[in-house]
Amino acid sequence: MAMVQSAARRATGSSAALTLLLGAKMRLFPMGPVAGSRLVTIFSSCARSASTAADAAPEAGSFGAVAQPASGDNNKEKEAASYWGVAPTRVVKEDGTEWKWSCFRPWDTYEADLSIDLTKHHEPVTFGDKAARWAVKAMRWPTDLFFQRRYGCRAMMLETVAAVPGMVAGSVLHLRSLRRFEQSGGWVRALLEEAENERMHLMTFMEVARPRWHERAFVVAVQGVFLHAYLATYLVSPAAAHRVVGYLEEEAVHSYTEFLRDIDAGKIEDVPAPAIAVDYWRLRPGATLRDVVEVVRADEAHHRDVNHYASDIHRQGHALRDVAAPIGYH
Ligand SMILES: [Fe+2]
Ligand SMILES: [Fe+2]
């Protein structure tokens, strides 16, 4: 496990005080999958404290907002003076610029496995499989009608739904683990990872398509219905619920393939990739929307595999906790 350390200096604040603080309280993080990436410098909140202490100097025990230099997600990041010593960690890239995403950190980033087989399909066998396939096909019809070939908007809206199942299933298994005093086999983490990954898809597509008010209202309604429907399905038949998601992901792979086709045909402008996507998937500099859609499609194919696999485990008479979960499967 690589541990990376180097001096870091913010543009603001006294460099002498900063050096002292860094020497006194350097915090290291395991780099894990990000080792070898272009991000090399990690340091604790001391640096931020050094600059803000001089600027605002709130007394220990007091609590109030501290004026913050423009940085972070859309310059909206705030900092609060903390008596509790839980000020956010600061991360700096090797070029000296600050890591600006507080919603994910360098160790959450990865390079998508684009070699995954996009054509895999689970042939429905049982009645539950067929019902799941039918349900997904039925959901696709109004989606096609509503969005037609507006793939940017379509992707954004579908990701608001796609991020629900992993969170629901992960929460159910989490609570079950607590109630029954038993391990989850890693499935809680794997499913929550999927939910987070789907939410990052949404954060990305938000940058290329802005929802209008009626689309936001639509999302609220769909989430209300889908959340409860999926929870009920998961409690009654987790095998069927995972199968539904497996088929949803197959459809997602298909939709993103169509998206790519329209980009290649020049029907959709191949705009530069959003900065959040470049960092999250470690895309090359100069990456475009096409690169983003490709990596998102690869993610969907991985979700397809995980959910069909989970359903198969149930169908084979096992509990998920008995089979090690594919944690970190991207
Ligand atoms: Fe997604
Ligand atoms: Fe997905």
Automatic annotation (TrEMBL):
InterPro entries per the UniProt record, alphabetical: AOX (IPR002680), AOX_sf (IPR038659)
Subcellular location: Mitochondrion inner membrane
Keyword entries, A-Z: Electron transport, Iron, Membrane, Metal-binding, Mitochondrion, Mitochondrion inner membrane, Oxidoreductase, Respiratory chain, Transit peptide, Transmembrane, Transmembrane helix, Transport
Reaction catalysis annotation: 2 a ubiquinol + O2 = 2 a ubiquinone + 2 H2O
Cofactor(s) named in the record: Fe cation
Entry's cofactor comment: Binds 2 iron ions per subunit.
Organism superkingdom: Eukaryota
Pfam families noted in UniProt: AOX
Residues that span the membrane, as ranges: none
Enzyme Commission identifier(s): 1.10.3.11
GO biological process: alternative respiration
The keyword RNA-binding belongs to this UniProt entry's keyword annotation: no
Membrane topology annotation: Multi-pass membrane protein
GO molecular function: alternative oxidase activity; metal ion binding; superoxide-generating NADPH oxidase activity; ubiquinol:oxygen oxidoreductase activity
Cellular-component GO terms for this entry: mitochondrial inner membrane; respiratory chain complex
Purpose: Catalyzes the cyanide-resistant oxidation of ubiquinol and the reduction of molecular oxygen to water, but does not translocate protons and consequently is not linked to oxidative phosphorylation. May increase respiration when the cytochrome respiratory pathway is restricted, or in response to low temperatures.
Family: Belongs to the alternative oxidase family.
Protein name per Swiss-Prot or TrEMBL: Ubiquinol oxidase
UniProt source species: Eleusine coracana subsp. coracana
Lineage: Eukaryota, Viridiplantae, Streptophyta, Embryophyta, Tracheophyta
Gene: gb29737
